[in-house]
Amino acid sequence: MAEKRYIYNPKTLSYEPVRLSAKSIFVQLGIGLVFSVVLAVMFTWVYSLSFDTPEEIQLKNQNNKLKTQLYVYGQKIDSIHSYLNDVQKRDDDLYRILLGEAPLEEEIRLAGIGGSGSFDDHSDYMISQLDIDKAKARVAVQKSSLDELTYKALKLAAELESRPKITPIRDSELVRFSSGFGYRNHPIYHIRKFHEGIDLTAPRGTDVFAAAPGKVVIAGNHRDGYGNKVVIDHGNGYKTLYAHLNKINVKYGQEVKLASKIGEVGNTGGSVSPHLHYEVQIDGHVVDPVPYLYSNFTEEEFDTLVALGR
Fold first, then answer.
1. Is residue 1 situated within a structural domain?
2. Tell me: the pLDDT tens digits for 236-261?
3. β-bridge partners, 243
4. Burial of 164 (0-12, 13-18, 19+ CB in 10 A)
5. Which of 10, 83, 212, 270 is 20 to 30 A (C-alpha) from 195?
6. Using an 8 Å Cβ cutoff, are 237 and 310 in contact?
7. What is the pLDDT of residue 125?
8. 76-85, 93-102, 221-230: which is most confident
9. CATH assignment at residue 223
């Protein structure tokens, strides 16, 4: 209960309770109301500075979640660039060297849009469209490079598969190289004439093997001085010819494997003694067969090749 206030009345020589007028009461109430409103406004302002509203809390949570997602995406982009750098190094330092290709220029590697900065450089954790475009462009360039190298590697593998590899007669049955590639005095005509292959002397009936896998395109005697002959198309421009055979063990159109038996050494056609005339052709031109002879096999290794060629 509010304490009463008194005032001295000189007329009655006594203290009398103070009686407020309606105006005074209204003024005091007004002052109190204004004070309350000001106090409420100040409290609300201070509270808003110190505490978040539910809406603000929700927005901040969403913002933090988005920042986290962007940071994760940024780290993934950095990881992509790091992986691409590793692939690029292997591309330049290994794959292209092995395949005889020059490294790609840096401008081509970066697809003409500059280098790749780390995501940590972005203090606001924001990913620009340029960051994404750089990653996409580098992936596209690297894919194109690997596609090109894959094509060349497959082409080289096919070329190696087609290339003649072995001496068509076993080392143990080969007597000697009786005539080499190039000009020589012909043993029958006794004139200087170009010899388009090499002659491998061996006993009549010695097995003759395919120097590489391929398809038989000639098997017979064409009365051209080669006697009984076999020609095998190995693909990629390679062919081999085996002449003066005593016996032919394959037929036209037959597919043969590496070290398949195709015939036997003989003395047919323009020949003075049993031997094998062997030629290597590339794109229709004869070449020296010697670089295509690999003869460092043991008997067991050659037997394995022959078994696989059956």
1. no
2. 999 999 999 999 999 999 999 999 99
3. 277
4. buried
5. 212
6. no
7. 46
8. 221-230
9. 2.70.70.10
Split into its structural domains, the chain has a count of: 3
User: 130 is in which domain, residue-wise?
Assistant: 54-162
Token pair 């198309």 in the structure block, residue? 233
Mean pLDDT of the chain: 80
Instruction: Single out the residue of 263, 285, 281 nearest to residue 200, CA to CA.
Output: 263
